[in-house]
């Protein structure tokens, strides 16, 4: 043991010589200006990489291989938050163009190019970006409203969910198309994102139908055992076996999104005991991902085996925890401790500026695992994680969101009112009626299947 420590110590000494000239990002976790300036550096690195890839392929809203489409959605979501939290709106039109480009013909984030691997989780990752755009009053898109796009995602997923009554008593499948690998898996990303989107729509529109679906979704996840009695969130279940066997691997991402959704539900229900227990239990369960309060992706980080996708999870976790703290003050102190320690670690794990801003995956002080690299050199996830956890510190002071429930008073463009279907404040119309926003689910599935057949025939 001692010999090993000695060796690691020597290694990190050697590393600090090698990188000695590049200073870590300087962050004072209690100083607004310091937080904003660190976030600006990190966002700049991401956008510089995006600008370069946009020049290369001309398709807005994508990052090149090996970054999957979902991750682009998560990153643009982070840049929408960046604008809201820091007031630096210089990237708004770039980000807005990216989201609009990837909407697909039916304005529900199901672009035909992605059909070959389009999962419910991928679609909802973009849908959650759209609802954030609505909440923060992001400049209105050319055609429609941000909230309509989020509602379209909800509606298409709800129709898939309603077809699932016979299998596992509910729950979304990972993949939406029968011929894609993963169709037989009911996963916590798809179901957690659906739960969160429903809870956010409920909070934003005041429409009780969304909170009913959020509740059903959560209760299903607990009944099936995706969420344990002590609020551990497991990865997913095989639909082939009636969801009886659960894959018990735990990702911080899932803990975060369920905590954020539960926090919103506890807020909407004015602190109902069971939702307050849920949010407290989920935040307690996050301890499995903490090393002296610093977020660690335990399932793969310690072995250094996190894949490209997994290396972007901690950013989403940080975002969701920060937002949970806003809606459920009862967990705000615990979350603040986690975010401050993690942001401090993340800033120390990053260095450089401009397009060369580079980060490594591990934030824990004791840990030097992971390569240090910029977004363009393979660490988009790491730079994104750092941006999210640093800017998360700004949430407590952020401007109020645009809200339809009378509790927010955002000064944005008032986009949080839908053009079709349920109106922002009526609280009566059902989400199914928001098909009026122009989505015909059956025809979308048919179009996707057709697009896929075309892709296969190449
Ligand atoms: C990226 O391009 C946009 C629009 O062309 C520009 O406003 C922005 O400054 C560029 N950002 C970086 C970091 O290169
Ligand atoms: C789909 O691919 C085509 C051909 O590369 C491209 O022109 C188009 O912009 C892509 N659309 C999206 C939404 O990515
Ligand atoms: C599932 O079936 C039950 C009983 O037929 C029904 O009450 C329920 O509303 C259905 N659920 C969904 C999601 O369609
Ligand atoms: C808190 O989390 C720990 C371990 O993660 C677990 O053993 C314990 O049961 C949890 N407590 C509550 C009240 O959920
Ligand atoms: C919380 O309790 C209420 C009232 O008993 C119940 O209607 C609701 O289904 C419960 N929700 C959850 C998530 O357990
Ligand atoms: C609901 O959230 C707001 C902020 O969005 C917060 O001020 C309020 O205290 C929360 N209410 C409850 C019951 O947690």
Automatic annotation (TrEMBL):
The lineage of its organism: Eukaryota, Fungi, Dikarya, Ascomycota, Pezizomycotina. The gene is DCW1_1. Residues 414-430 have a biased composition (Low complexity). Keywords: Glycoprotein, Glycosidase, Hydrolase, Membrane, Signal, Transmembrane, Transmembrane helix. Residues 404-432 are annotated as: Disordered. Belongs to the glycosyl hydrolase 76 family. Its EC number is 3.2.1.101. The chain crosses the membrane at residues 435-456. GO terms for cellular component: endomembrane system. GO terms for molecular function: mannan endo-1,6-alpha-mannosidase activity. Residues 1-24 form the signal peptide. It holds the Pfam family Glyco_hydro_76. It is an enzyme of class 3 (hydrolase). It is found in: Endomembrane system. It catalyses: Random hydrolysis of (1->6)-alpha-D-mannosidic linkages in unbranched (1->6)-mannans. One of its GO terms (biological process) is carbohydrate catabolic process. It comes from Neocucurbitaria cava. This is Mannan endo-1,6-alpha-mannosidase.
């Amino acid at each position: 043991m001692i010999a090993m420590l000695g060796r690691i110590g020597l290694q990190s000494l050697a590393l600090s010589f090698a990188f000695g000239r590049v200073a870590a990002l300087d962050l004072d976790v209690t100083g607004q200006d310091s937080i904003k300036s660190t976030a600006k550096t990190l966002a700049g690195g991401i956008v510089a990489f995006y600008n370069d890839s946009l020049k290369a392929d001309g398709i807005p809203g994508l990052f090149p291989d090996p970054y999957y489409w979902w991750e682009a959605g998560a990153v643009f979501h982070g840049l929408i938050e960046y604008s809201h939290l820091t007031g630096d709106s210089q990237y708004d039109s770039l980000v807005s163009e990216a989201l609009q480009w990837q909407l697909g013909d039916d304005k529900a984030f199901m672009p035909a190019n992605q059909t070959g691997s389009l999962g419910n989780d991928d679609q909802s990752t973009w849908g959650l970006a759209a609802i954030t755009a609505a909440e923060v009053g992001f400049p209105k898109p050319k055609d429609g409203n941000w909230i309509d796009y989020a509602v379209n995602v909800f509606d298409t997923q709800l129709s898939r969910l309603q077809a699932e009554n016979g299998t596992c008593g509910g729950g979304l499948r990972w993949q939406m198309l029968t011929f894609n690998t993963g169709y037989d898996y009911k996963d916590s990303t798809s179901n957690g994102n659906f739960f969160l989107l429903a809870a956010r729509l409920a909070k934003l529109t005041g429409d009780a139908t969304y909170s009913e679906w959020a509740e059903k979704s959560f209760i299903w996840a607990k009944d099936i055992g995706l969420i344990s009695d002590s609020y551990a969130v497991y990865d997913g279940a095989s639909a082939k076996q009636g969801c009886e066997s659960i894959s018990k691997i735990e990702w911080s991402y899932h803990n975060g999104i369920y905590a954020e959704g539960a926090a919103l539900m506890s807020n909407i229900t004015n602190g109902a005991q069971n939702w307050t227990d849920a949010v407290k239990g989920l935040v307690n369960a996050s301890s499995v991902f903490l090393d002296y309060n610093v977020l660690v992706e335990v399932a793969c980080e310690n072995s250094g085996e996190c894949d490209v996708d997994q290396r972007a999870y901690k950013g989403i976790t940080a975002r969701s925890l920060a937002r949970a703290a806003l809606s459920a003050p009862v967990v705000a102190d615990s979350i603040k401790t986690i975010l401050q320690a993690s942001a401090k670690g993340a800033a120390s794990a990053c260095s450089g500026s401009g397009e060369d801003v580079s980060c490594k995956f591990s934030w824990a002080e004791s840990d030097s695992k992971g390569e240090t690299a910029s977004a363009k050199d393979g660490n988009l996830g790491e730079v994104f994680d750092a941006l999210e956890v640093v800017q998360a510190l700004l949430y407590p002071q952020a401007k109020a969101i645009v809200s339809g429930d009378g509790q927010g008073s955002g000064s944005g463009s008032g986009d949080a009112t839908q053009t079709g279907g349920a109106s922002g404040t009526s609280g009566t119309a059902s989400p199914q009626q928001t098909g009026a926003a122009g989505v015909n689910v059956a025809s979308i599935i048919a179009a996707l299947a057709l697009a896929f057949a075309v892709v296969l025939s190449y």
